[in-house]
Fold this sequence. Notes:
Belongs to the sigma-70 factor family. ECF subfamily. Keywords: DNA-binding, Sigma factor, Transcription, Transcription regulation. This is RNA polymerase sigma factor. It holds the Pfam family Sigma70_r2. By secondary structure, the protein is mainly alpha-helical. It has 2 domains: 3-70, RNA polymerase sigma factor, region 2, helix turn helix motif (Rna Polymerase Sigma Factor, Chain: A); 92-171, Winged helix-like DNA-binding domain superfamily/Winged helix DNA-binding domain (Arc Repressor Mutant, subunit A, Orthogonal Bundle). It is built from 8 helices and no strands. Helix 1 packs across helix 3. The protein is globular and about 50 Å long. Residues 170-185 have low confidence and may be disordered.
Amino acid sequence: MRADALFRAHAAFVAAFVVRLGVSKAEVDDVVQEVFLTVHRRGGFEEGGAKPTTWLAEIALRVVSTHKRTERRRRVVPDEAALDRAVATSQSPHEIAEHRDALSRVQRALDSVDVDRRAVFILYEMMGESCDDIAQGLGIPIGTVHSRLFAARRAFQKAHERLVRSPSMVERPPAGAGAGAGGEL
């Protein structure tokens, strides 16, 4: 499949994936463009073992990792418009504020997970990919998928519980956020 056809079919998927990996809203278009430039340089997608989405996720993961290495990590500011859309309009202002805080806690907890583990977590838990597809798409053994998923779930849960106990932490990035403090699995 050619890069332009992949872009039309999967640009929204790639954008959602990189946002969940912690790319700021202001940088999403640039990162998505870099992903599809990489796809173009590779000559498009060859039908085979991986699905297009997991293959694109592998490329996006590498682009995001490079992007984060070359750019100083900035504080992620929640996208207010996206938060507003996620909250029902029939709710009271208090309920809307509570939902915004909850969504912000989830994103902060997600941001605290090592990027390789976060990618597996997002693909499996949020985007519904199978472990086999993730392994093929990311080019890693199935055991690594399982161990990263286990570690990501544990890290996410601990971070989320910490944020629930200390709501003021929602506004501050956790120490070492996304720095891969847990080591590579």
